[in-house]
């Protein structure tokens, strides 16, 4: 009875990925008046524990946010054939699992283009949380977008760290941003969880533009956040909750075409995005959807066609 | 003003440490301008009583009167303001501070240090002249000899203008010359009208300097007498509860083959300072070689090198006609023990014992590889060690004879007996023994001396290092005096005296004197 | 003479301390508007009320036993090994390499070799700090902190670039083959009601064995005797002919090895693959466990169980009481550490007085003495 | 590497070193007085949260600073209670404080702001702004000195200048005042202090409270100056690095400054040069990220001798056993 949501270790209020999932669930709850269960993990061992508990408690579907659930889900899904599981960011090949994959590189490509066009110095930055494939996918799509808009542009990429602290270190995020500014960057894109707060803050302090990630972060510093790369985890969760028992299994790929990813445009950044920029980006969006532009996915082969510094 | 009231009067003082009743209903009174001695066995409660007077411990019951006035002393601050100063048995100095810093600590004049330091420096020079208490005000305490450290303790009290001075076993670590000087100072202070309480295990000192003496036993004050009206044997009996032999009784030596031969031994310490500058000597079986000297002239290093605790830079050491490795991997306490060298170190608490270890663990200490202590190749045989410990404790009269008691819960004398028991029972060819009776009460001293003589009579070679000239003269068959890493010369005990040895210890030869 | 009977010292005082900690935790629960009594019930029931709960409680405890023993052994040699985190991570690497590189015919063989690898990798990670401490006097606290960071960097690199399954998003190794699946509590003792999904596995027995071996080592062998002697007094150790360098190295290698062994439980027994940050703070919890257990294997065992209870009970509490967040659980853990570990004299001092006065009264009543 | 890059790296060094320095000096007071403190991390974190939370609600960063200091001092007080009054194990107490701060900050943040354990972002007067020193702009064009003054020396938050000033102040207090003498003595030999008629407890509590104040500054600098608000666990291990710096500095104030600057520098360089190619081989980012830690170990092993802590450190002062 009722759907359930399991957040990843970052916690439900990470202002990006998990929070987006949470928002989707909240929207469903408000709109339908339904109730759902949620679990925040404390340790890796609780992944399996949480999934099993929810399945046994009769929650359906059980939605989980994060690739790290992949391996666990693969083993436990057969134990609960009556339950449908929805996993975001990973593919699990089981009959009762819906796997949702986002084309982050496509969305990142668009915000990369905006960055390339907005940049006056021709240097833009990227701050990632940890050097893991998911983050590289963001970075690589972004770099391709930048270069598409401005072939001479340079992309500086930095990673925050290698410990879990990497996702919660706004001070280091700020410091990396300053370093990028010193190297000429005037737009910086953060894909680093709580660390991103520091990136956006420093960008605002230093008077350059920043780009948020996952949720719409334009409002954090109105007029100073160029845009946000939207990853509609909220929509995915909302849809899964709404579908309820009738949810389809299999792999769902959410890209630009499905509006699963995109860039945020609202009153906070309306003045930053000129009509020409918007036009160019929207055109690129159409071309990507039409297959005329192929954005290389870092995860395909672990390489990126555009060099970052 | 009425008739002079006692400078100090304690009434009904009791103090328990957990289950141990250290002081039981003690009353005592000390007249101003006198030196009052307190004697008693180890653990009798002397230090505790004085620490209560000094506010270091709080008494469970009892009252303190200073100059006739009831004076509660809840902490040392109160004692200091009442004019009491105390030199503790274990010095209370901050070792890596300079002398002045130690002196002004707690008696600074204001929030800034400089004025206090300047003032203290001046006063120290004055005090140095007045009492002959010379110490470099800027020397770091840990680099001073114990004798000088004690001067610092006394200077601390003089700086605070204490009228009542308590000294807890002040001469335990002093050379006779230093002790003499201390007593001269105490005499001067007494003349100035100060009141002095002196705790010591050395009855000779009691007889020489005190006016009255109190005896403590098992937490109680058993007697207070005028010094002039008593004698050492009487005091000893009051302390221990039986007659004590105050002199070492021994047969003439009967030396055999040479056991140890040391040739041109040179040693540098960790800082590269040369501590032994070419020492040569030998010891034969059935002989005690006593080494006299002011602490810090290389005796410690000599014992440590022979005991395998530190490497030597050059020289040879031959034990039973076999050369001993002085450097490298195989030069350590284990290999020395295997070669038949036993070692009672100078510092029982830092070296000879592991204080939290129980008695039986300490009895195995250093000999834990002994096959009879092993159950099999991996495990130690604790039952065997405990049985062995029990036997040794009985033979050496260690009290309480409980192998499960941690070493720190034994009194100093009994701790020493544990170490002595462990080393002597090994039946070594050569026994190294440093400061065998430091801080130990007369009953235990008697016992330890007897054991050393007995071992000699079994035909063992013994190297004795002690700062107590009495002990050196009483035990040794030959005496060597060490000064600044050299041997100043050798004497036979009955052909020399304290005066001559004292001069040699100061680096002067007979001819020069 | 002791001030208190032994049972009071080892049972009564810790018990009162835990109760105090829970009382204060109750206040915090009250502050966020929930019922402390109910929370308490959920925690206890969740952790100890069922085979399911025990399955997790003991699983966590297994981790903490290993890391706690690791810290304890180093403590006996007077060294503060903060590096359990990194050493355990490296142990995981060793286990993963063993499990992935050979098609093991049977789990028992794999476990044997994996234990060796876990211990060797963990020990190797402790070896450099140990060597620097022994030979150069570099403070072991700094070097082990640094090695924690270096370990995490190394693992991220290896998991992303070397071990990651091609095409997978997750920076983790492939799942280990079924053949190396360790028997879990349900396989071993199904009659106790364990479910097949319980993470509690045979490494718990390894942990118990480790407790016993560490106890033997420290209190029954010459080496342990020397380690403790060195820990109490270095000068005395030198007097006895104990080589400080040797003791520092051996104690730290054993410590690192024990920390590494944690991976047999978390990596081989539970996750069955190596993930990023597989230690998850167990190295740090190990410090608390060792300190609270007074570096004695029995104490470490009990403290590890207590922390297992807090972890599992806390998880249940969080599942069942939406208002209780995971940080709330951290607060409760902190209070337990504080009261049982750091503030225990607050309880002990008055208790000692009480027992002493009781004994005095006994004595007064019986004038026979 | 051009001059400007060096300046920028040094500038970053100063910012990164400041929280380390404040925490390191905090630890210095405490440990010099014989109270080991591995709870620096927790105190910083608590101060970070309370300074940000109160700065946000009051709109005044100074009020926030006071709150941060107060929070840190409360934890210090707990540490003091456990390790001084109740003679507990100082390491356990420190561990407990780290856990307590990590949990408590988020729990309270969540109840107060409902933003998932974060404070709302700080703006304007709720944040320490960068201070431009006099003539910074005018001097900017003077060669060499100009950029050094305007880029590196000028333009930091007031807390940075405070931290730098606290170094000589600490030296002066420790070695030139009565208070310092007593504080050092109590960490070396509390019995000596006791018999000199000084309260051991008093001196140790004073040291522990100063430690609280300085950790408070460190935390406030993180949350209200470098960042603009609190994020859970935002101290990110800096308390432990500060501890390492303290041992590195052998418990001496000037060396503490050098050690923290060194750690800051290594960190800044590691941040700046993450993607390096050497003879055609790309060095992994992770290696560059680990480099500061590797270098620390190398420096420690190669150049810094044995660090001898205050002798009574870590041991509760027990008169009667
Ligand atoms: N700090 C302490 N804690 C617990 N018990 C103590 C302490 N100090 C002394 N005691 C106990 O008090 C008793 C008296 O000890 P005290 O040191 O006063 O003896 P003493 O007469 O000075 O011995 P010594 O001649 O060896 O110096 C001892 O038996 C011991 O049990
Ligand atoms: N912590 C303790 N608990 C119980 N008994 C103790 C404790 N410490 C000492 N004792 C008892 O104290 C007595 C003497 O101890 P004390 O500390 O006075 O030695 P001491 O003779 O003064 O040593 P030293 O001469 O080295 O000062 C012993 O009988 C021992 O049983
Ligand atoms: Mg005494
Ligand atoms: Mg004594």
UniProtKB/TrEMBL annotation, chain B:
PANTHER family: CARBOHYDRATE TRANSPORT ATP-BINDING PROTEIN MG119-RELATED, GUANOSINE IMPORT ATP-BINDING PROTEIN NUPO
Subcellular location: Cell membrane
SMART domains linked to this entry: AAA
Keywords noted in UniProt: ATP-binding, Cell membrane, Membrane, Nucleotide-binding, Repeat, Sugar transport, Translocase, Transport
Assigned GO CC terms: plasma membrane
Species, as recorded: Rhodophyticola porphyridii
Main localization (coarse): membrane
Topological category with respect to the lipid bilayer: Peripheral membrane protein
Keyword ATP-binding: yes
GO molecular function, a single term: ATP hydrolysis activity
ABC transporter domain ranges (all copies): 8-243, 260-509
Sequence similarity: Belongs to the ABC transporter superfamily.
Protein name from the UniProt record: ABC transporter ATP-binding protein
Family matches, as Pfam families: ABC_tran
Automatic annotation (TrEMBL), chain C:
Keyword entries, A-Z: Cell membrane, Membrane, Transmembrane, Transmembrane helix
Top-level taxon of origin: Bacteria
Keyword NADP annotated: no
Transmembrane segments: 12-33, 53-75, 110-128, 140-160, 200-219, 247-268, 274-291, 298-315, 327-347
GO CC terms, sorted: plasma membrane
Cited InterPro entries: ABC_transp_permease
Molecular-function annotations in GO: transmembrane transporter activity
Membrane topology qualifier: Multi-pass membrane protein
Protein name: ABC transporter permease
TrEMBL record, chain D:
GO molecular function: transmembrane transporter activity
Record protein name field: ABC transporter permease
Highest taxon in the source lineage: Bacteria
Keyword Membrane: yes
Membrane topology: Multi-pass membrane protein
InterPro entries per the UniProt record, alphabetical: ABC_transp_permease
Record carries keyword Transmembrane: yes
This protein's UniProt keywords: Cell membrane, Membrane, Transmembrane, Transmembrane helix
This protein's GO CC annotations: plasma membrane
One of the Pfam families matching this protein, by short name: BPD_transp_2
